[in-house]
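[job 0417] fold request received: tRNA (guanine-N(1)-)-methyltransferase
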Amino acid sequence: MFIDILTLFPEMFTGPLHASMLGRAGEKGLLDINIINIRDFSRNKHHTVDDTPFGGGAGMVMAAEPLFEAMDWLRARRGGADRVVLLSPAGYPFSQAVAGELAKEKHLVFICGHYEGVDDRVAASLVTDEISIGDYVLTGGELPAMVVVDAVARLIPGVLGEEASVLEESFAGGLLEYPQYTRPREYRGQAVPDVLFSGHHARIDQWRRRQSLWRTLALRPELLANVALSREDIGILRAMQTEIGHLLERHTKLAPEQDGVL
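[job 0417] inference complete; emitting structure tokens
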């Protein structure tokens, strides 16, 4: 996969994109990441890439010209990209499903916005996708680009080396991942569940599925709306809800009346 990242701060990508899995993916020839400095395509002598917004207002806006020029250069060099992604708070939410879609492409371009935003002609004419990694404000699109690239790259066949691990991780099947343990078997009074030493793979799989369902129900219940649940899964969740109900009922009986007390 070819990934081109258009940014005002190329130095931000030096460490994250050359270490760990992404670095090894590059060495294997599975991933070719090119960092492009948007300032190189500015036509003024000071290489400025922003200006005051028409109509007034606070802050500065990234100009359209350098980005259009950069995309023209990319087309001449590599041809058209499969997807051009603008990292933007106005974009649709990034998810594991979106990462899976992007991982199927051969050539991705990421545009990192900055300042108060990007001239809207960029989004209207150059961009295929606007993506947000969350409802909060960052100084620019560089960190979101790193997040998306990392999530996408690890789905490329051969990058992780252990394809089964991709399928079992959190969000891959819509549920949070089950608890993981390693040596020692007991540490500071906390023991690893005995079922994991049983050698009974069906029982282990059943325990892991139950734990995934429990974690998802407790921490991210909204995820269950989009998960394909089996009859067994539904039975497990109903049993969990019943158990929670009994716990709350016992707690209510034991707790002193504190109406109106914070």
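[job 0417] notes: The two ends are 56 Å apart (CA to CA). The longest helix spans residues 231-254.
[job 0417] exit 0
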